[in-house]
């Protein structure tokens, strides 16, 4: 591949609370749009006459992401970042094979429309920070989130007769059961029990009882036991809420006939990392396994896409 600097075979994306790529790029799924260029907004894209910039204010949860152009624009940002990492020459045409993720519970109904969402316009031109980018969307393939995250460590997971993958994201808790290492798509769903709900419950509780406004980052700081200005009673309140939220997840799964006392539980996603100590401490989880790599899904997509393209004869 002697033209690597002008060509990307794989671009791997996860679209939810954050955008993640296989090379480790992560940014919040938040977007501003304007008819005039941004002057102080940092990185920006101009596409079809509209200017876009990233923001830390997340796009509201959408079960079907094809109903808005925003996720397509966020993908252009990810493509631009990845191209810059391989010394892209502005204006050069680049082939893109895109791998994207969907929650297992939505996968069967949405994967075709989600793939087509990225393939509507195969020749795409846009400006990133004032420079011209030109890409050809060669393919777009969707994979189930969560399952992809275990692919890099599949050898140590496949021998469990029964396991469940639990992906705690920003807006949802996605679960998928495995039998002898194989996904059982009949036992999967997406529950609205993501970190955003957890944060909102804590913020509301502290505001109501103590008349104090806290940010999500404050909650993270307390859970991670970093230095903080908050009193002990506030820290204890956050700890109790985290324990209660962990129980809420376990009970919601049990209502769906998934008992973590008798099933190997594989936790993935940023929410799992934040709540790891509570997951491991729970007596209601017999065998917790927390995948610590925040980009595990993206790495799994790359492995799956490589195999798929190789099977089709692509090098």
Automatic annotation (TrEMBL):
Gene3D superfamilies: 3.30.420.40. Residues 165-280 form the Actin homologue MreB-like C-terminal domain. Residues 62-147 form the Actin-like protein N-terminal domain. It comes from the Bacteria. InterPro entries: ALP_N, ATPase_NBD, MreB-like_C. It holds the Pfam family ALP_N. This is ParM/StbA family protein. The lineage of its organism: Bacteria, Bacillati, Bacillota, Clostridia, Eubacteriales.
